């Protein structure tokens, strides 16, 4: 049984003070609703991680980073190492987000190195994959996602693979208010699981959680989570308001 997994990707929003406020509102909600059986993750910007890790001690809210270097230390101006993240109680790291791929030119080879480095340090990667609108309209969405998964997970051991989460985020659905239909999202997620089965076998592929991301809101989370293969959501815009995010957690 895979436990539902709801993550908030705050992107480049919230100062440290604003982050503490938002994290506390989520913390309070979870304390008042102890029966909710969902793994909850928040991914504030790097500059807020330390402050949030000091304020929030609730084991029901895990902390994630939005990116990471594949280097551990050295002359890499502006980069953040896995060792730095670990000391701030960060347990997860989003890797290969489409915004990093599209706006900052991240390539699959680099994402693969980051995933390996994260796993080496017991950080759990959330690998984001997804097609552009053009790729979907020309029927190439599965080909694209397969290529990303095979290249990003190249030479990653079976033993470590089950701690990875995959987030299927069709690029055309991110921040646009257009969600993939729950059937299309489920269909792609089933396909992703079949690729994982080919690479790692049945056992591991059944353990890996696969989230959907792209305009997830309180009004559509329930339908998405009712689908057979969708294990959770990676939420952008709606994770910035505690009211919306708490409603999503409580789908
Ligand atoms: P939105 O929920 O704002 O569409 O963002 C999705 C996303 O990119 C999460 O990583």
How would you describe the oligomerization state of the chains in this entry?
single chain
* Cα gyration radius (Å): 17 Å
Quantity of strands, as a count = 8
CATH domain class name: Alpha Beta
Order of helices and strands: EHEHEHEHHEHHHEHHEHEH
Bound molecules: 1,3-dihydroxyacetonephosphate
The profile of the biggest β sheet is: 8 strands, parallel, barrel
* Average predicted local confidence, pLDDT: 97
CATH topology: TIM Barrel
Name the helicity range: 40-55%
Number of continuous helical runs: 12
> Which band does the percent of strand residues land in?
15-25%
Task: Give the full name of the CATH homologous superfamily.
Answer: Aldolase class I
Record the strand order, biggest sheet.
1-2-3-4-5-6-7-8
Number of domains: 1
Just name the CATH architecture. Alpha-Beta Barrel
């Amino acid at each position: 049984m895979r436990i539902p997994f709801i993550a908030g990707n705050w992107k480049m929003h919230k100062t440290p003070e604003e982050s503490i406020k938002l994290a506390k509102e989520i913390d309070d909600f979870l304390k008042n609703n102890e029966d909710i059986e969902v793994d909850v993750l928040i991914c504030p910007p790097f500059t807020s991680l330390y402050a949030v890790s000091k304020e929030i001690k609730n084991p029901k809210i895990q902390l994630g980073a939005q990116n990471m270097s594949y280097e551990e230390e050295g002359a890499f101006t502006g980069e953040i190492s896995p060792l730095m993240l670990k000391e701030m109680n960060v347990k997860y790291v989003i890797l290969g987000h489409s915004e990093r791929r599209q706006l900052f030119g991240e390539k699959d080879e680099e994402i693969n190195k980051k995933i390996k480095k994260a796993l080496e340090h017991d950080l759990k990667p959330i690998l984001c994959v997804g097609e552009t609108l053009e790729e979907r309209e020309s029927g190439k969405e599965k080909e694209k996602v397969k290529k990303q998964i095979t290249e990003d997970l190249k030479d990653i051991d079976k033993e470590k693979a089950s701690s990875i989460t995959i987030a299927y985020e069709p690029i055309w659905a991110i921040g646009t208010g257009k969600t993939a239909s729950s059937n299309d999202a489920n269909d792609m997620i089933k396909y992703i699981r079949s690729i994982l089965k080919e690479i790692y076998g049945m056992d591991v592929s059944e353990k890996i959680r696969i989230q959907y991301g792209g305009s997830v809101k309180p009004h559509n989370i329930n339908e998405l989570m009712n689908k057979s293969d969708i294990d959770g959501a990676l939420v952008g815009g709606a994770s910035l308001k505690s009211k919306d995010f708490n409603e999503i957690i409580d789908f």
